[in-house]
Design a protein that fits this description.
Structural class: alpha+beta
Strand order of the largest sheet: 2-3-8-5-7-6
Strand content: 15-25%
Helix content: 55-70%
Number of strands: 12
Number of helices: 16
Length: about 400
């Protein structure tokens, strides 16, 4: 115990004795840890913003369909109508964490402005409920559908540009009924919207659910969309809801399953972050190893004297390792503290970002404080320093005493 305390005190004194080398090594560790925290927090913010935009502009947290709709509903949409959506909504309403549920009816058709036609993807929605869910549905012009807009229509920004229409324009939708007949209804454009997905905006329109049912000549709906109070509860609530509804002939899909773009984006950024973490680890290892090597071999004579006085090889190695462990600990702690402060400062300012792929709108990025990223950054800073000291410690300890003592001359 006495030896360990003496070694610890000697290690601390040695760190402060070599102020230049210690400062240079600490700077390398701190910069590496800060880089990991800032990059990890930035990527986490991308995930969160894209997730919330996906949920609150298009899919909601969960969607309930008739079993088989997800696989075959595009080919045979009328075979998978939910005839009694109120029963499904009653089952949903009793789950904790559910904010609301709303019905949707999907359809395909042609949108005509009096001069030309455009194939569109339509949704019949419950206007007031969708307005609450759609907090990330950006209105380029006009307003969201309300319960009073029975014959109103929202059109995607791409649709508006393709047909040259805007708020106040009158358009006609031509669609097939289940019997194969053609039906048309006239609508007035009350708003032009933009989501994160440029392709969706180029084809999507929304009308009141009752108008969509009248257009198609049906009474049912295709899906019940569920809104939750916390996106992190999506998976457990999906499992609980599936346990109730699957045996009744329904299927439950999460927003993550419905949006392939999000999954691909997450995979891409995680791969990039992994490469960045590896690069930072290598840089920290090389820079710290260089500094440790220079410091250790400048003190070869000192270590030779200690061995001549009776210190064993493993004690010399332990002294060097403890010094660098302390250095790594101090550097990692400083890096985490400075990284958090820098993340908070950058988040207070905001980072303007250009539009991501498949989008036509930029956004403001922030640096999230993520506990797992902080822990990983701390561990990388600490262990990189510790690992970089092993070879120099082994090399000095195995140096012959006479050769080490010559360094004092």
């Amino acid at each position: 115990m006495m030896f360990e305390m003496m070694t610890l005190r000697c290690s601390l004194r040695n760190l402060f004795r070599q102020k230049g080398r210690t400062g240079m090594t600490l700077a390398s560790i701190v910069c590496g840890v800060i880089g990991l925290i800032v990059s990890g927090g930035f990527v986490e913010d991308v995930f969160i913003q894209l997730r919330e935009s996906t949920i609150h502009s298009r899919f909601g947290h969960l969607q309930v369909y008739r079993a088989g709709f997800y696989a075959n509903g595009v080919r045979e949409p009328y075979d998978y109508l939910i005839s009694a959506p109120e029963d499904v909504q009653a089952s949903i309403a009793t789950l904790p964490g559910v904010v609301d549920s709303m019905r949707r009816l999907n359809f395909f058709g042609l949108l005509n402005n009096g001069k030309t036609d455009l194939p569109i993807i339509g949704e019949g929605v419950e206007a007031d409920k969708e307005a609450k869910l759609g907090s990330h549905l950006f209105m380029v012009d006009g307003h969201q559908l309300t319960g009073n807009d029975i014959n109103g229509m929202l059109v995607g920004e791409g649709v508006a540009k393709s047909l040259g229409i805007g708020v106040g324009s009158f358009v006609t939708i031509l669609a097939n009924t289940p019997e194969g007949a053609l039906n048309t209804l006239e609508f007035k454009v009350v708003g032009v919207f933009r989501t994160y997905a440029k392709d969706f905006d180029a084809r999507a329109v929304r009308v009141a659910l009752s108008s969509a049912q009248e257009l198609l000549g049906v009474q049912g709906v295709h899906s019940v969309v569920v809104s939750l109070d916390d996106s992190l509860n999506t998976d457990p609530l999906a499992a609980r809801l599936a346990a109730r509804l699957v045996k009744r002939g329904y299927e439950v899909k999460t927003w993550f399953e419905l949006d392939d773009f999000y999954a691909k984006t997450v995979d891409l950024y995680k791969s990039q972050l992994g490469v960045l973490q590896f690069i930072i680890l290598v840089v920290v290892l090389l820079s710290v190893a260089n500094s440790v090597n220079m410091t250790v071999y400048e003190r070869v004579g000192e270590f030779g004297t200690l061995r001549a006085l009776g210190k064993r090889d493993w004690q010399i190695s332990l002294l060097i390792i403890i010094e660098n462990a302390l250095l790594g600990l101090i550097g990692a702690i400083l890096g985490v503290v400075v990284g958090i402060l820098l993340a908070l400062a950058l988040s207070a300012i905001g980072i303007p970002m250009p539009p991501p792929p498949n989008s036509n709108v930029g956004y403001t990025a922030y640096i999230r404080i993520v506990p797992s990223v902080l822990l990983l950054s701390f561990l990388i800073g600490f262990f990189a320093t510790l690992l970089s000291s092993l070879l120099p410690a082994r090399g000095v300890a195995r140096l012959p005493v006479a050769e080490a003592l010559r360094q004092n001359i």
